[in-house]
Amino acid sequence: MYPCLLAALYYVKAGSLGVGLLQVLLGVLTVWFTWKTGLRLRMPVGALVAAAIVATDPVLLQYTSYAMTEVLSAFLTSLLIYMLALNLTEETTLPDTPEKAFRTFATGLVWGLAILCRPTYLAFFGLWFLASLCNPVLKRILNTPSKGLVWRQRTYLSAGILIAVSPWLIRNLVVFHAPILTTTHGGYTLLLGNNPVFYQEVVQQPWGTVWSGESLDAWQKSLEREIENTIPPVKSEQERDRWMYQRAKANIAADPSLFVQSCLLRLRRFWNFSPLNSSLVESKPLIGWGITGYYLLILTGAGAGVLLLTWKRESGWGPIIWLVFSFTAVHLFYWTNMRMRAPLVPAIALLSVYGWSKSMEFLKLRKPIATREQESHNTL
After folding, report:
1. Separation of alpha carbons 214 and 207, rounded Å
2. Distance between CA 78 and CA 339 in Å, rounded?
3. Which of 131, 241, 368, 380 places its Cα 20 to 30 Å from the Cα of 358?
4. Domain extents in the chain
């Protein structure tokens, strides 16, 4: 999707200035939709704090100056979770009006665009859809009221997704004679994080070790030589992708222990507090400590938010939790770093505000109780 936006900008001769303005506009809209989502989730003050977190996120600020998908994906996340919150927090007793049906369909269109931007959103849709099917059964067992999308709304949502991704599917049918929905480099990103060289030079080394550019380049060249010497020859892009998937699976099967270690490394990298191998952080340690403290505060609150929401099962928050879980699960296996977390920034901000606000409420409730107990003890 992002290359199409760039092509459109260069077609109208907007050039690099147009790209920069687009990045800034997407960033502003991301902040705005995060605020709107917070309001929809009944956090009037917290919505402003969540918006401020998104506006000051170091990863998004850094990649605003890059012509990459981080800012666009964060914007699509903010828009998608706002539309889902809008649908899920609405009273289920209201009639299924054309306006409601169109809004659900439009949510599907946005979800489809997100899939075209980052295929990981497809995993999010799969997990969320499965959870939405299981939710009514769980509600019946627990004898609690159920709020969620009915079957007709799920149909509208799925139709929106299908229409959004259909041009890409049709294009791949014409070019590759196969209905490829995601990408043809998934095999490479799986193999990149699951190969003997990466295991030896990064996984088995102390935390913070990164794969050197020279070694990575040598590994990539050796990979190309292997592909060239493969019989029967690997010619098409689709065949290359399949070959790399098979090689990655063979590496995983050959050493399951190192594969598990690499998964844990990817989990730690994905949720790391500070970027690895950053020249700015290395040259200015104070900035590095500031980033670490910032993310420690935000992610601690987000973790508390996930735990509290999982326990309380508040309406409207389900998709946000499934979004975070799905991205984390996918990047356990595929190549990852902090940059891959960029699409989750709006969700993390909202979860963090919820987690900290509920924790503060709990402490405020505990304080008067402790005070009364102390006063009672003193009178005795």
Report:
1. 20
2. 17
3. 131
4. 2-118+120-181+271-379
> Which tokens hold the place of 116?
């075209």
C-alpha span between 240 and 226 (Å, rounded): 11
Q: What is the mean pLDDT of the chain?
A: 89
DSSP 8-state symbol, 194: S
Closest CA to 327 of 46, 73, 41, 60: 73
CA 42 to chain centre: 23
Predicted TM-score of the model (pTM) = 0.90
**Residue 367: pLDDT band by 50, 70, 90 thresholds?**
low
Query: Do 347 and 324 meet the contact criterion of CB atoms below 8 Å apart?
Result: yes
Report cis status (omega within 30 of 0) of the bond before 167. no
Contacts of 292 (CB under 8 A, 6+ apart): 273, 274
pLDDT at position 286, please?
Answer: 87
DSSP secondary structure letters along 45-93: HHHHHHHHHHHH-HHHHHHTTSSSSHHHHHHHHHHHHHHHHHHHTS-TT
Number of helical (H) and strand (E) elements in the chain, helices listed first:
17, 0
3-state secondary structure of 14: coil
Q: What angle is formed at CA 230 by the lines to CA 227 and CA 236, rounded to 5 degrees?
A: 60
Inform me whether the pLDDT recorded for 375 exceeds 80: no
- Give the pair of three-digit tokens for residue 243: 């070959």
* 316-319 contacts, C-beta under 8 A, 24 or more apart: 316/40, 316/41, 316/84, 316/85, 316/88, 316/89, 317/41, 317/354, 318/88, 318/128, 318/131, 318/132, 318/135, 318/148, 319/80, 319/81, 319/84, 319/85, 319/88, 319/128
Q: How far apart are CA 108 and CA 159, in angstroms?
A: 7
Residue 180, token pair as written in the block: 């490829």
> What span, in angstroms and rounded, lies between the C-alpha atoms of 348 and 137?
28
Mean pLDDT of 150-158: 85
Is the CB of residue 118 less than 8 Å from the CB of residue 69? yes
| CA distances (Å), origin 195, targets 233, 239, 259, 267 | 22, 19, 9, 17
Residue 102 vs residues 76, 88, 153, 159: alpha-carbon distances, Å: 18, 15, 10, 11
